[in-house]
Amino acid sequence: MKYIKIIIGLIVLSSLFFTNANATEYFRLYRGVRPMGMGGAFTAVADDENALYYNPAGLAQNKSFHMGLVNPIAGLSKNTYDMMNSDFDSFDDPAKLEEFMRDFVGKYQHAQVGLFPYIGFTTDTVGIMMSGFLNAQVGAAVRNLADPYLDARVFLDYGAYVGAGFDVTEDDSFKIGVAAKFITRKSVIRQFYAFELADDSFEDKLENEYMQEGDGVSGDIGFIYSMGDTFKLNLAAVAQNVPEMDMGEAEDIKTVVNTGIALITDLSFAKFTLAADFRDVAFNAGEDDDIGKRLHLGAEFRFNYFLAVRGGFNQGYWTAGATVDIWIIRIDAATYGEEVGAYAGQKEDRRYMAHVTIGW
């Protein structure tokens, strides 16, 4: 099946090993390229299709009609890119594979591929959007130099979102939004030794033994409060995955509450935005209580023509991004650092993302 091939490919990309048993990244259903270029600070910005996944209240401030028919997204860590450029090709030899794994101890790896087609429209007071999605992502760590094994976390999520944002005041100062989602999740969370990965029956075992599956229905609710004119200040909050999504045998999707603030002004040549987020204010998404891993800062210049540039800090690591938008083709690119250690500043995983959208 196609999804099996996707997951196997991602696992192969993720031959990585990390030395801190308590270290992990925060897995999310969706990471937008534009938001990640801004350090992940988007809760109070939420003014494009990413609003459906970050804060549905922002759907009320989208343009009148918008759609993305074909919009593949892909992400890769620097470590994974380096591994892919190695000349190793003996994945069916357990002894050679084990030696290859030792070369990547301490090098966290990440890969992501997805599709997020959407269609939406906005009236004077209401913005509505519908989106399908398919997102495969993996993170893994090779542990134990003497007897290495692959500690893998693989997720394949697909389903549908629908959301609406409402202007509830005459001066457009207060917006609320709701979204509903149906998700099917297939996950593999397991430790693999070289002899298991090299086994001829690995693909069959992956599908029939290792993979867990489940479905869930949940929702998001958020608001954005705006004040000011020349310099507009947005205050925002969103509760996502309410109630917590019980995904059956697959890993559950926890409820998170995010807050944000943004300062937005129109200059003569560009729209300038400063933003900050504190994600997971209830410390529910991860097993740690580190504040730095939940902080996100960003800035953006959206020029009056077809170009935007942005930068920021995600969990303390620098980010950068850009958009080129020409007629019906938009290309977004970003780089960011993700914390894969137990606290901010411990272990950076440098990543790169790209998103191509054909639509308007």
How is this structure best summarized?
This protein is mainly β.
Give the CATH level 1 class. Mainly Beta
Percent helix, as a range, is 10-25%
Structural class: mainly beta
Quickly give the CATH architecture: Beta Barrel
Give the termini distance in whole angstroms.
Answer: 33 Å
What portion of residues belong to β-strands? over 45%
Can you tell me about this structure?
The protein has helices spanning 2-13, 33-37, 51-54, 78-84, 94-102, 194-197, 202-210, and strands spanning 65-70, 72-77, 109-115, 118-122, 126-143, 149-167, 174-193, 212-227, 231-242, 256-266, 270-278, 295-303, 307-314, 317-326, 329-339, 348-359. It starts with a helix and ends with a strand. The chain is mostly beta strands and 360 residues long. The chain has a 16-stranded antiparallel sheet that branches. The chain has a single domain (2-359), classed as Porin (Beta Barrel), CATH 2.40.160. Residues 1-22 have low confidence and may be disordered. The protein is built from seven helices and 16 strands.
